Amino acid sequence: MSDQHTHVVVIGGGYAGTVAVNGLRQRTDADITLVNPRADFVQRIRLHQFVAGTGTATVDYDSLLGDGVRLLVDAAARIDSDTRTVKLASGRKLDYDYLIYAVGSTGGTSSAMPGAAEFAYPIAEFEYAQRLRDRLADLPPDAPITVVGAGLTGIEVAAELAEQGRTVRLVCGGTLAPSLSAPGRRSVAKRLSRLGVEVLETAAVAEVRSDAVVFDNGAVLPSAVTVWTTGFGVPELARVSGLRTDALGRLLTDETLTSIDDDRVVAAGDAAAPSGQPLRMSCQAAGPMGAQAATTVLSRIAGEQPATINQAFLGSCISLGRRAGIFQVARRDDTPLDVFIAGRAGAAIKEAVCKSTLWGIRREATKPGSIHWRKGGRRPARGELLG
């Protein structure tokens, strides 16, 4: 290791990791490497548009990263805390003085659901979305599509496809949009009905077939494509590296986002679990956490005590096609209020939020340290999980 420069490796170039590498540039003597498996930044909040052919979801990293940040297109296979090295999928090794773990979340199908792994189409990652987009291009417009999962992602996919004239069925398996308030859910249901989406609120899928879905009551309905949006996982990198994780695989940290096993490893975004109480998986949480992760590393380099997380939420945004949306207002602890903005105004807010995420990253690239987490929020009680 060099005595003059501090080597910082950031694993993951999503919202959290990209903000983090730019924030680290507050120190001119830091050598910063961003490890990411793709050469482009993926706007996950636009993947439903990419699938439907109504928008793009990738951005060139050249427009997002500040001067001096080295982008290494590769995947991390293992972290060795003893030697402070990261083994890459290519076989190379990277040395680090500090590491920011920002690997994000993954989408997937339930291995316990018969046929899901073989026939369902997840959407949470770019490669999955590309596979689904290609499949849809081969289908006639009236081919039946089933979207399983009625959280924010499932609703956005169903609405986007229906607005393009597709025949869409949305299987909730419980409550439609459970993270919204009751008035917000009614507004979403009304919009989906106008788009022609068939909403099956209480039905649950028992099996996925290549051309159909089987429900728990024995009913079999045709489905040319079944889109799977029922939750997220996280990469297993922390676990296979011997770092302690929660049950889902998120890296366990203290309130400064520092690993409870290694004070040279700091986490941010969907794969972080501060005090075992992770924030909702979202770019709303990831960006500020990336900024705080960078601040934690900078504080440790300077020999100072890092600040603790004190992050608040504003609410949730859902696009309902290109001409409508909803902004659900929430308390700072992410509890929804009976207040929302819907229709074209909701769509405008959603689009502004999507654009502002890139604006914030670019601002951090030109003015490191400009992003701060929202303060004043209530950290969830021990054992409580937001999202």
Task: Furnish the topology, listing elements before pairings.
Layout: E1 6-11, H1 15-23, E2 30-36, E3 40-42, H2 47-52, E4 58-60, E5 69-73, E6 76-80, E7 85-88, E8 93-95, E9 98-101, E10 106-107, H3 116-119, E11 120-122, H4 126-137, E12 144-148, H5 152-163, E13 167-171, H6 182-195, E14 198-200, E15 205-208, E16 212-215, E17 220-222, E18 225-228, E19 232-233, H7 237-240, E20 251-253, E21 265-267, E22 272-274, H8 283-301, E23 315-319, E24 325-330, E25 336-342, H9 343-366
Parallel strand pairs: 1-2, 1-9, 2-5, 9-21, 11-18, 12-13, 12-18, 13-14, 20-22
Antiparallel strand pairs: 3-4, 6-7, 7-8, 10-19, 15-16, 16-17, 23-24, 24-25
Helix pairs in contact: 1-8, 1-9, 5-6
